[in-house]
TrEMBL record:
Organism: Actinomycetospora corticicola
Gene Ontology CC entries for this record: cytosol
NCBIfam families linked: Ac_CoA_lig_AcsA (TIGR02188), PRK00174.1 (NF001208)
Protein name: Acetate--CoA ligase
Domain Acetyl-coenzyme A synthetase N-terminal: 25-77
Domain AMP-binding enzyme C-terminal: 526-604
Domain AMP-dependent synthetase/ligase intervals: 84-463
One Gene Ontology biological process: acetyl-CoA biosynthetic process from acetate
Record-linked Pfam families: ACAS_N, AMP-binding, AMP-binding_C
Keyword Oxidoreductase (UniProt): no
Length: 647
């Protein structure tokens, strides 16, 4: 309920980085002069040449921030802390899934990043080149990200659960010069091969070298001249490196996100604006303190980890935990064991995982001392109130506020989130836009929605961390985010929302054909393309049906072609096929065979009607459907599936 409220604890309200008085002042500053507000936040970084220019929207939506400033991102995340005498402070407390542990101080990190920067340079990487990183959560993953930032190369991280084909797309689209991978990774107690996927992805491309981290020790195929071991190339390099400053608008990284036209979009984030908003929001939202032990448990390939596991915490000199494995290996309380062992003070997680914890029972938390926790965080999708309360009570002990954040790969950093020392919380709401950020909910025609009326979430004021373009496709950047409200200059988030009478934002999920499965954004078009690539599938429609654990589940409807074998199990075959094409995260939970899909006369598949059926609702407007029997078939297939699953 909207009137269920949690005020900040008194001790936090009194000593938070941003108090109630600070918040009022910051909002007034931003409203009076947005440029001056963000230039003041930029002063929190080390600049070789401090910027005097804030926002330039003369080429909107292709904008710049701090264009006359020069800085080095890696220096800001590592060297300046060592220079300030904090070199012996632990930067990374890493745990491997098998139980191995490494503590890396800021001085250690500085030496490792220097060596990796020299190593990449030896392999021919130069400013503006793309380095694809296909690694699990390792210290080396963070090191190579910072090494790329140090020399002005763009890193492009790829989730280790993605298939070789998904990796290959990102390698070829980014025109990568080097791929960094590993021999294998540990997953649920097993050493899983990785190098073979990388080999398939780079075959026939312009990739010059594959740099391989030895993690599991398993034998791997090897291409002489192309493949090189990390320990052979990096470990012998000098441990000092002069960090060159770059213009603030120099690209920092590529991150790929699904889109409604199928092909993933390579979003380009640049150095100065991204790091300014990232460092400040990390400090303000997570109340970073010198004695914190912070843990963002996202995979390093996701933007959550880029912003709030690497660049934000390290820019603020925080000690943080990294964990390689899954939360149920070797037991379901592994995360809480880690929190207790390291004395974690801030834990940032996803609603999907919280709902999974709920199904496992409170014994996974009761068996561990979680009293060190003072803040919790949520990201990836709107957290339902039941999961919010469970997290607050059973993990936070009823005392730790939950920083529920709304933002996207495109926004770069948090946009709507509470300030934990001042914001009254409502379970299920991301609360209010942060100081310097402005959003609104509008109808299709751009008029403001009434309080509690659902509509389209838009950002109506510039912000520094916005992605600057889509790699190699600026027209797609415009059409994806800015065309609908081009005259107003608004950014269309693609999420539905409502805003209550208190100005609190309540997210309502995607309004396009991108679904959110366990925090992973998947495109219906991309999934349908994978299904149709199977020789037995002529057409496919994919929706994200509501799921109590994963948020949304992939449900596919297919029209077959050709003759199947007598022993054919098409459902099993198609689920395995999608896994091979896109990775396990994209595996459909359900596959239903029908003879016709609901379409308009122009051939557009009416996915919203299928979603209505899968959600247990009567379909909405069906006037545009050509063949009404398509809905009857889909309804029957869903019912048959429920009966088969014993529901």
């Amino acid at each position: 309920m909207d009137d269920d409220r949690y005020a900040p604890p008194a001790d936090l309200a009194a000593r938070a980085n941003v108090t109630a008085a600070d918040e009022a002042r910051l909002r007034a500053e931003a409203d009076a002069d947005l440029d001056a507000f963000w230039l003041a936040r930029a002063k929190g970084l080390d600049w070789e040449r401090e910027p005097t220019q804030g926002y330039d929207g003369s080429g909107h939506p292709f904008v710049t921030w701090f264009a006359d400033g020069r800085l080095n991102v890696a220096h800001n995340c590592v060297d300046r802390h060592v220079d300030a005498g904090r070199g012996e402070k632990v930067a990374l407390s890493w745990e491997g899934e098998p139980g191995d542990r490494v503590a890396v101080t800021y001085a250690d990190l500085q030496r490792r990043v220097a060596q990796a920067a020299h190593g990449l340079t030896e392999l021919g990487v130069r400013t503006g080149d793309v380095v694809v990183v296909y690694l699990p959560v390792l210290v080396e993953t963070v090191v190579v990200m910072l090494a790329c930032a140090r020399i002005g190369a763009l890193h492009s991280l790829v989730f280790g659960g993605f298939s070789a084909e998904a990796l290959r797309f990102r390698v070829t689209d980014g025109r990568a010069k080097v791929v960094v991978t590993t021999d294998g990774q540990y997953r649920r107690g097993k050493a899983v091969p990785v190098k073979e996927n990388a080999d398939h992805a780079v075959a026939g491309t312009d990739v010059e070298h594959v740099l391989v981290v030895r993690r599991t020790g398993q034998d791997v195929p090897w291409t002489e001249g192309r493949d090189v071991w990390w320990h052979d190339v990096v470990d012998r390099q000098p441990t000092t490196h002069d960090a060159e400053a770059f213009d603030a608008e120099t690209p920092l990284f590529l991150i790929y996100t699904s889109g409604t036209t199928g092909r993933p979009k390579g979003l380009v984030h640049t150095m100065g604006g991204y790091l300014t908003q990232t460092a400040w929001t990390a400090w303000a939202c997570f109340d970073h303190r010198d004695d914190d032990v912070y843990w963002c448990q996202a995979d390093l390939a996701w933007v959550t980890a880029h912003t709030y596991e690497v660049y934000g915490p390290l820019a603020n000199g925080v000690t943080q935990v990294l964990y390689e494995g899954t939360p149920d290996t070797p037991h379901r309380g592994r995360h809480f064991e880690i929190i207790a062992r390291h004395g974690v003070t801030v834990y940032y997680t996803a609603p999907t995982l919280v709902r999974t914890f709920m199904t496992w029972g409170t014994e996974i938390t009761d068996d561990h001392d979680l009293s060190s926790l003072r803040l919790l965080g949520s990201v990836g999708e709107a957290i339902n109130p039941e999961a919010w309360r469970w997290l607050h009570e059973h993990v936070g002990g009823g005392r730790a506020p939950i920083v529920d954040t709304w933002w996207q790969s495109e926004t770069g950093a948090a946009m709507v989130a509470p300030l934990p020392g001042t914001t009254t919380l409502k379970p299920g709401s991301a609360t209010r836009p942060l100081p310097g950020i402005s959003v609104r909910v509008v109808r299709e025609d751009g008029s403001d929605a009434d309080p509690d009326e659902g509509g389209l979430l838009v950002v109506d004021r510039p912000w520094p961390a916005v992605a600057r373009t889509v790699w190699g496709d600026p027209d797609r950047y415009v059409s994806s985010y800015f065309s609908k409200f081009s005259e107003r200059g608004w950014y269309l988030a693609g999420d539905g929302a409502r805003i209550d009478d208190d100005g609190y934002v309540w997210l309502q999920g995607r309004v396009d054909d991108v679904m959110n499965v366990s925090g992973h954004r998947l495109s219906s078009i991309e999934l349908e393309s994978a299904l149709v690539s199977h020789p037995r599938v002529g057409e496919a429609a994919v929706i994200g049906a509501p799921d109590p654990t994963t948020g949304q589940a992939v449900v596919a409807f297919v029209v077959t072609r050709g003759e199947g074998a007598a022993d054919e199990d098409l459902t099993v075959d198609l689920r395995a096929h999608v896994t091979r094409e896109l990775g396990p995260v994209a595996r459909p939970q359900q596959v239903h065979v029908v003879s016709v899909l609901p379409k308009t006369r122009s051939g557009k598949i009416l996915r919203r009607l299928l979603l209505d059926l899968a959600s247990g609702r009567e379909p909405g407007d069906t006037t545009s459907i050509v063949d009404p029997t398509a809905l009857d078939q889909a309804r029957g297939a869903l019912r048959a599936g429920e009966q088969k699953r014993g529901l």
